[in-house]
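User: Can you write out an input/output pair for a complex, sequences first and structure second?

Assistant: Here is one pair. Inputs:
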Amino acid sequence: MKLPSMPAWLTHYQRQWLSGDLTAGLIVTVMLIPQSLAYAMLAGLPPQVGLYASVLPLVAYALLGSSMTLAVGPVAVASLMTASALVPLAATGSPEYVALGILLALMSGLMLFAAGLLRLGFLAYFLSHPVISGFISGSAVLITIGQLKSLLGVALPSGNAFGTLTALAQSLDRINLVSAGIGGLALLFLVVTRKWLSPGLKRAGLAPKVADLMSRLAPMAAVIAATAYVAASGVDRTAGVSIVGAVPSGLPSPAFPALQWQQMNSLWLPALLISLVGFVESVSVAQSLALRRGQRIQPDRELLGIGAANVASALSGGYPVTGGFARSVVNFSAGAHTPAAGVISAVLMALVIAGMTGWFHYLPHSVLAATIIVAVTALIDVDTLKEAWHYDKADAISLLLTFAGVLFIGVEEGIMLGVVLSLAVLVWRSSRPHMAVVGRVPGTEHFRNIDRHQVDTLPGLVALRVDESLYFANAQLLEEKIETLIQTTPGTRCILLILSAVNQLDTTALGTLTELEKSLAARNIMLQFSEVKGPVLDRLHSTPLGKRMKNRIFLSTHQAFLAFTDAHALSMDTARRTPWSSMH
Amino acid sequence: MKLPSMPAWLTHYQRQWLSGDLTAGLIVTVMLIPQSLAYAMLAGLPPQVGLYASVLPLVAYALLGSSMTLAVGPVAVASLMTASALVPLAATGSPEYVALGILLALMSGLMLFAAGLLRLGFLAYFLSHPVISGFISGSAVLITIGQLKSLLGVALPSGNAFGTLTALAQSLDRINLVSAGIGGLALLFLVVTRKWLSPGLKRAGLAPKVADLMSRLAPMAAVIAATAYVAASGVDRTAGVSIVGAVPSGLPSPAFPALQWQQMNSLWLPALLISLVGFVESVSVAQSLALRRGQRIQPDRELLGIGAANVASALSGGYPVTGGFARSVVNFSAGAHTPAAGVISAVLMALVIAGMTGWFHYLPHSVLAATIIVAVTALIDVDTLKEAWHYDKADAISLLLTFAGVLFIGVEEGIMLGVVLSLAVLVWRSSRPHMAVVGRVPGTEHFRNIDRHQVDTLPGLVALRVDESLYFANAQLLEEKIETLIQTTPGTRCILLILSAVNQLDTTALGTLTELEKSLAARNIMLQFSEVKGPVLDRLHSTPLGKRMKNRIFLSTHQAFLAFTDAHALSMDTARRTPWSSMH
């Protein structure tokens, strides 16, 4: 892949795009400030690490990514996965912990970038939607449970959902009521504004778009109000309300993280999983936004863009980033035309880091917890479960198992379980193919299931249609079906396989058919094929089976029936009309 | 599943079967004696453990298995896997090592038995044939390399193929020439008899079957000759030739192996993999033999049979067993009618253990190594590689990677790599479906690829046939294809998806189609389906998409074309004849 020196949006930038990009960049920044502080807390990292992850990564993505509206930066799920990867390796918040977070971003970035160069963008679609939904919902519930302790001002060790809830129940007497009060009020304010502010403003006459965007500023308002209250009242000293405290100002000088073999060895799997999840999420957000404007994104370039963003994050003291759902939607709605909006956010964030970090000193942790809880509960997705439950139980069960895996085993285990389940459902489904013995619809050249329709069959000929590609997991079943048919249909002289739905035929299935042909021939039963698809036929021709069967492969089932009547001195009139099956 | 109290072959045993079963039981025993000693050596276990694994397991399988001719007992690949599992945990041949081997058999047996009760027999077909072939060939090469040290009388640590060969090259000066001479002669004898004895005997007038069976007795002859030579010459004392030594006589008293949590924790994965590989191998051997006689085996009952055999092995001091290829073929050829042949082998083996173990004292290890090498080199399978290479490169590459994985990474890693490759090839293949824009073959109701045939199309209608089931890994590609078609075909008013080859439509693909339909509707482009398969249509009907599209799903593509001409006041005469594509 040739990397363009300058992205097209930049070289062809048009002036009329600027106002949309400026507005969107500003609004996203106002969302990004509390979110970057909150998600750093969720990841167990000091607040400035979240701020650092919100500057250079945005610029790197703007230069290499393909989406016009994806807002890159710290997100909830990747922060949870970061915490889950680092907690076993170092004390939360310690310098080693921070160094490991930076290393994790570097490794994830290099993996994504390498995958982009190898054009592995198609991997974005290798997780089924129900499994992604189960994983995100599980993560959201786990994050919410984990944030209860910050919301209530109780210090608790991290753990799985069950452990955290148990520990919390045992520590109810240690709740800091002032913290909990501030957090509870913030939560109430955020829920109310989320639910009623936008409709209220619309009824008051505001344009719907403006009303929606206004409601997105609520977290910033909560942060400002709570910070002002704590600073004025001094409850951090008098009542022990946990606050953010000193945040170093100034941008970190770019530095290459120290590489240690042993650390990399324990981080490669988490880095791989964060890359996979981050990439899949980014692509699905970017894609759905692009489609609304008739634009396209390129998964291979997304790998490069998100990969570069993570490398940039690592080089500037940040932690793993990816495209976030909520901020991207706001960016889109606020009128972002190009990634210039992201660059503008980055510049504004850099200004905040350079001179305004002191303002966050009195920000209470419980308010950050409230913003996280409101943000992630929006990610809990019951609709997909309902749809899947009605449409396809196997998908619904995959969703529930992935959800349960995240909550009760662990985040990494949950996503790995999801990958395995995606594949297992695929194999399980195609391993039991639908097969139908067919006959001719009287007077036509159409052939239908003898169990569903009144059709004509020829004595001695069994025509079997297989409704699935044939491969290692189902070839044996076809063989068994044919053996059963021969045993239940005395006098069978010919088995006609109708391969109209066989899109693939792998080496294992080819071997099974080769053995089957020989075994049938030894019993004076002829194997024939009809309606073989072009690509399958092309490959079949050069095989020993293809050569043996050269004159027994028919273009249409009708031709095969005619050939059988000729060969056995029958006429179509000798056809037997099948009775209606007792099943129908 | 109801377990029958007595198998049918036993309750309906016919006298005329007895001579075949007796002959087969006897010949298999003659093969089994040297093999059980040799495979125990390969597994790093004392010789008697191999003998113990050749008694009760045969009886247990006879009572519960479904194959009439499968010969159960110690086999090469499972012995290699046992060594690979136990070597990191205890000193080879130590009492703990033996105890772990017994525990491994117990765990594997319980897993298989449980899988049988859960009717998971279909798992036998979840590994592609090329991957199994690569795994077996890799194991055979690894075993051969590993046995070189016993053949040459050099003591070397175990390791992967490369390490063992390197260590061997550095120890060439420590070869025991007498051991190597005896082993070399045995190897030569076995190779010559294998290659020329049977044809020679046939030319001499023996019946082919008898000649084949005679050649199978060569290993026993080599064992007897070598043992007699060592006993008479005393080279074990004078030249340090390594011999089997004292083998305790008498049957072990059944005992339940000691269970320790920590040991079970390190053995569950090896036990699972041995179960999987052993089961897959057993079923494929049993199936191919059953087919030759028009019999069937039942994978679920095979799980119970092999599971019970392993539990029986553990209870009587043995190690993991499964159905072996070579002995099963001999059992079949020698005329075994029922598992009574296995019971007869078991009785004979019990007699050997009871009174004849002293005879193995002077048996040289180098001769056992020679019998192993000759047995496993027959398992190296180049034909499947050749076939796969011609037919399907992806399958051939899976085979080679699995082969290399076993040789250079490890046995367990190799089989896990194989499972992943089987699935990955499946997904990769169906993730890039063949799609064709079709038109009407003039004057017919047939529709063909516009790039391959001269066909009629209607202005404004794009008819796209998808040659693959739609699911999470390819749904997005369909959407992209349609967007590209719309951009390259101005004036498109209708997209007709021909779903004749879509056997499945999962929740993810349903979601993609639902979004696509909305997105097209917003652009005044109508989505239509034709030739939807029954099972797909049944499920589609109750979904929101199915309800929205109720009147836009056509039985045939022809009907969809007619409806389009009606709706747009066109006639089929307005169809445009497509030119021959520049591609053809």
